[in-house]
Amino acid sequence: MKKSLCIALLATLAFACKKKNSEPSDRFDRAKMLENFAQNLIKPAFQELQNQVNTLKTATDNFVQNTTLQNLQNLQVAWENAYTAWQYANAYNFGPAGEQGLRKGLIEEIGTFPVSTSKIESFISNNNANFNDFNRDARGFLAVEYLIFDLNGNNTNILSNFSSANRKNFLADVVNNIKMRVDEVVSAWNGSYYNEFISNAGTDVGSSTSQLYNEFIKSFESIKNYKVGLPLGKRPGQTQAEPTRVEAYYSGKTLKVIGEHLKAIENIWYGKDKNGNDGIGFKEYLESVEGGTTLITSTETQWAIVMDTYKNIPQNPRISEQITSNPTPFDKLHTELQKHTRFFKSDMSSLLGIAITYSSGDGD
Fold it and tell me: Where would I find the Imelysin-like domain in this sequence (predicted)?
């Protein structure tokens, strides 16, 4: 009897030790990591986005008031700069940028693609711009893109279309709505939310660490599943490629936008600001747990392959045309992103003890 009790006690102790060793270390200062993200990545990203959106609004107002080729070209440049800035902010879709009542997160309200051109044209015909409904595919940055870019680069067609007062009104309303949404988020981060974010340093669901991590992974997966997978026909229910469903279809900026988004994901991994200044990121967090350095090596090895694969995609023709004529380079990017998913998602979640709180719908 004593022998049995002894064996049972030893087994219990062994299990307890194993469990303790596999749990993330509490020695890591998550508040310092959150402070780095808030101060050097998140607030600057939203501030830059706000600056570029303000420029976009000015360019829009000028174009609406004086519909000239020069003003259209200025507007197109302003849109590209604002949408590029958005790539560095769209992973922070929580807190003031998260869902609020019937309103979805900022990424759905201003970043939904592909857009519904039929809805947009219907709203223009009826001179109706209601941005509090569920028609998120008829507003945001990609609705602006549809309005100001011609698929064949024919700006004369765009100028002709804007002889309609309704079209001018709708464009101005869409841009004003983007500005309002972004201003709200910036105001909150400049207010009390900044300290709330840093102080909520646990790892439970709803903590800042959990929200940051989950939106980081979700943002990465949005590249794989939607920016790359959707036009390639890789999503559930698709039976063939759908090239017109690329992001930034009308401007032809698809490849550039994906590249900026990949850089933004890399910055979050390293805790690095847009200027390359390194801080405390998820890499440092992993260094504090058992098995973390091994995962870091695997992650960075595969990430290098992802980036090399991206760089090997031809700049021309535009991605929507490559999917039809030569899909292999773009398809390879999807393959390498798919391989990378386990490192960012299941492996990292397990080591850090942070639950995945969303479903990507693709079985990963």
Answer: 44-323
